[in-house]
Amino acid sequence: MIEKTKIQVPILAELAAENKQPEWLFWVGSAGAFDDRYKKVTREFAKLLTYFKVDYAVLGIEELDSGDVARRAGNEMLFQMQALQNIEIMNGYGVKKIVTCCPHDFNTLKNEYPELGGHYEVWHHSQFLADLIEKGRVKAPSSMFSDKKIVFHDPCYLGRGNGEYAAPRSVLEAIPSAKVEMKRNKSFGLCCGAGGGQMFKEAEKGNKEVFIERTEEAIETGADIIATACPFCMVMMTDGIKYKNQEERMKNYDIAELLSMSLGL
Amino acid sequence: MTAQIIFAGALLVTLGVFAFTMRRIFLYFKFTKKLPLNDIPKRIMVTLKVAIGQTKIFRHPVMGLLHALVFWGFLVILIGSIEMVIDGLFGTERVFGVLGWFYNFIMASGDVFAAIIAVAILVFLFRRLFMHVKRFYGPEMKPVSKADANLALSFILLLMLSLLGMNTFYLLEAHNEAHEIAGFYPVSQNLADLFAGMSDEGIIFWHHFNWWAHILLIFVFANVLPYSKHFHVFMSVPNVFVSRIEPLAKVANMDNITREVKLMLDPSAPMDAGADEPIEKFGVSDANDVNWVNYMNALSCTECGRCTAVCPANITGKLLSPRKIMMDLRARMKEKGPGLIKEGASFDDGKTLLGDYITTEELWACTLCNACAQECPININQPSIILDMRRYLVLEKSEAPSGLNTAFANIENNGAPWQFSPEDRMNWAEDLFLKSRQ
């Protein structure tokens, strides 16, 4: 029989009050906290953290936007205000290791916070999960996807931006299923169209939307599932699937969701 | 002796014109922003890999191989060109011949490479003239850009033909005069058989003709290059050395903003050294606002269009073309540079890079996906200039698309780009259960 245990997500401030310091900070990110679709990914990742008995906590309401969008849209002032406040909070708690589901926040925290005084070991959740798999901690995933074909869409800020192509693929390898690649993959991967602030503005005049170009490429592979590892890519691919009327045939999941589902969590 | 004097004169004119051109171009660098060059060992590795090893050009394997062969061939043939300058000045013949087996090796490689390069150039010309390769077209590719490409290719073709001619008639001349042959020439040996019936005078004439044609073409080519997109030939290796070596997604920090923000967050904070400096302009609106590496990038770009061909905005019909950004920067500096030299940094001709060359529509179409920077065979970084121009628009002019302004306001007020209350940041964790099989 299946038993359900309630998860109480640990909050850093509460642990600090008890003089406890968790090993990991799970950086939820604005999309992870507020975007309805990506909230589900956050929940699945929190389940995985609990399942693997990871010593972690979140900042909760103390977390501010990382500033990625503001910075890339040219608003350096706003970015640094966010960054410096986040750094002050994290340094106050003595945060050392961070894991996040968002490649944009991963990049900002890992590469851009150090220049403002925030020095942390930052992991993307694909790397975190790949590491658990490598350590042999992922046991007996179900065969629920074994008749499915999965195609991975590389997020720019994980792949090209930070050279990580292997980790998300090794997470998918651990899930019994067929894998295919798009013509433009890894460093050749095509952007979903949402980066650099595009998520929050109208697209410039052109003859096509970027997300449609990318979704068509994914559809061409004959895959049943587009796997992503980024909140922005997820919005774009989900919209693309709807636009192309493929909702019956094709689904869009984050790699953490796929792993969590195949572990039956 | 007459020949030596003529040669010395030609060399002097070449070096003189070259020095004049280069001085002008390098004076423009004085008007660009400083940027320290860190991590020299890593830069040497990147140069060996990307420039000498040509790794990134191989992202297009077939054309990449042809380009790599042309590049490696140039490196070998360069040794022969240096020898020709010494021969020309001192009236010697094949002076490096004393190097023995090494000379044989270098000459044989150069001879074979000359033939390979000639074939590669013919393929390149054929592609440009008769095949509609999409990346060679676009609004920024004016007839002059195309003529520039074809001119440079023709130059190189003539250089290679004259090199092979020189070797061929050298072999025939040595045979006639029964003197020892310095070097080994696998391709020219076979060509020599074709001209074996030629008169002695003819052979001597064509040997001299090809020798002079080759070296004079080099002299002229060297002075045409700085005015052409093929300045690439000189600039690309140093450009790779000075190129950005951080992860592509990392954005450079604006330290002048950091000072202001720190004061804003904590007015009692001690003023750092440097706070008294005059307030600089935020971001880039004209050619002399960029840093020197940006300008180096623009001078090195050979307009191959690999960046534009992978740009998601360009692919989907938007105005943005990363190649155009580099071409615009170079053209604008060429236009404004002389005035800057004459009147100093405050020179104003009523025009700007942002506005008169690059439109805001182009800038806001960028997804900062870094596909262009990833693709560039010589590590040009187009996104950093695009972002610096966005910074100017937002920080100096408060001009951003309305959607972004809304996101800015939300981030400032709620700590998230969407309009949600910060109190709701933990809502995702409600009613969360872990299932397990018992």
Summed up, what is this model?
By secondary structure, chain A is an alpha/beta fold. Chain A has helices at residues 12-17, 29-34, 36-51, 68-72, 76-93, 103-112, 125-134, 166-173, 210-220, 231-243, 255-262; strands spanning 2-6, 24-27, 56-57, 97-100, 121-124, 149-152, 178-180, 225-228, 251-254.
How many distinct domains of chain A?
A: 2
The total beta strand count of chain A reads 9
Instruction: State the helix count of chain B.
Output: 18
Largest sheet of chain B: none
Mean pLDDT score of chain B, rounded?
Answer: 93
Shape of chain A: globular
Rg of chain A (C-alpha, Å): 18 Å
C-alpha geometry of chain B:
elongated
How far apart are the termini of chain A? 13 Å
How much helicity do the residues of chain A have? 40-55%
Tell me what you see in this structure.
The complex is a heterodimer of chains A (265) and B (438). The longest helix of chain A is centred in the N-terminal third of the chain and has 18 residues, at 76-93. Helix content of chain A is 42%, strand content 13%. In chain A, helix 3 (36-51) packs across helix 11 and helix 7 (125-134) crosses helix 8. Chain A has 265 residues and is of the alpha/beta class. Chain A folds into 2 domains: 12-130, Rossmann fold (3-Layer(aba) Sandwich), CATH 3.40.50; 141-262, Rossmann fold (3-Layer(aba) Sandwich). In chain A, the strands form 2 sheets. In chain A, strands 3-2-4-5 form a 4-stranded parallel sheet. The two termini of chain A are 13 Å apart. Chain B is mostly helical and 438 residues long. Chain B folds into 2 domains: 2-230, no CATH class; 255-421, Fumarate Reductase Iron-sulfur Protein, Chain B, domain 2 (Orthogonal Bundle), CATH 1.10.1060. Helices cover 63% and strands 1% of the residues of chain B. Chain B has 18 helices and 1 strand. In chain B, helix 1 packs parallel to helix 7, helix 1 crosses helix 13 (322-343) and helix 5 (143-177) crosses helix 6. Chain B is elongated and about 95 Å long. The termini of chain B are far apart. Classes of the chains: A alpha/beta (265), B mainly alpha (438).
